[in-house]
Amino acid sequence: MANGKQANENGIFSIRNIRPGDYTLFAWVPGFIGDYRHEAIITICSGCNIEMGDVLYEPPRDGPTLWEIGIPDRSAAEFYVPDPDPKYINRLFVNHPDRFRQYGLWDRYTELYPDGDLVYKIGVSDYRKDWFFAQVVRYTGTAYSISFVLCDLLFS
Question: What region holds the Rhamnogalacturonan lyase domain (predicted)?
Answer without folding.
Answer: 6-50, 65-150
